Amino acid sequence: MLSPQLYRRAIPAGARVSRWQAPDGWALRRFDWPSDGGRGGLLFQTGRGDVFEKYLETLAYWHGQGWSVTAVDWRGQGGSGRLCADPLVGHCDAFEPWLDDLAAFWTGWAAQVEGPRVLVGHSMGGHLTLRALAEGRVAADAAVLVAPMLGLRSPVGNWAGERVARLMARTGDPARAAWDSNEIPTARTSRMALLTHDQARYDDELWWYAAKPELRLGPPSWRWLAEAFASTRLLARDPRLAEMRTPLLMLLAEADRLVDPRAALRIAARLPDVQVVRFGKEARHEILREADAVRGPALDAIDRFLQVRAPARQVA
Fold this sequence. Notes:
Elements: E1 16-21, E2 27-33, E3 40-45, H1 56-64, E4 67-72, H2 96-111, E5 117-122, H3 124-134, E6 142-146, H4 157-170, H5 192-195, H6 199-211, H7 222-236, E7 248-253, H8 261-268, E8 274-279, H9 292-309
Helix pairs in contact: 2-3, 4-7
């Protein structure tokens, strides 16, 4: 098997990048890498502002384990168009269209998968994954949440943060950027210092944006920020969490400066079937793009979880 590192800056020859049309006609960019390994299907969903190219190394790893791998850029980012006039601003009017897209895509994709169907979501993708599962929009055999956005890091707290974001969205263009650059406002550290300790993997992202500048996305809009606070608040209060039967694995970075791992732990305490793996200061937000000392154990934990909770089906 070829090293997954070979795929970090190239689309694999066996993969296909195409378009999927949502029920309302919106075209989303998708990545499919079929495998005859018989392991099943794995759908990976990225975080806010992400593109699947950032995770090619990890997608190659799972493909090497026998999974057929698929990823989709959320509408409004990556290669799936934009939701406001400024192509560098991550905007939305609500999170529900993303949930609708995930549900519709899952229905068609899952019907074509032979074997276990697994959903993996990072950051905002982890938030939307859990909402979709709790609301019964998707029915996965197992799911993995990687640094899920189940609470936002806010210097004024979530209650005040949501109200400030709502006020700013009402008193000007709601699609304007909430701050100038970086992943958080008034950041006094580099963007890399928020995401990963691994310089080479961070540079991979910059390489892709230089090669395909149309994929780059910058800060969120005030409306996105308000809706993110609202969606995390609604999910935290959802009584259906306690009734979920989908086996879950949650990977958390306790030193995460973008999302709140404490909020994730509070939700994990209410889930009936969840395993939590916690990393300390050695891990930043992008656990699957971290240094090998973090990324390796994270992938091992996912492998062990899926071997038990989404085992390969025996062929008669």
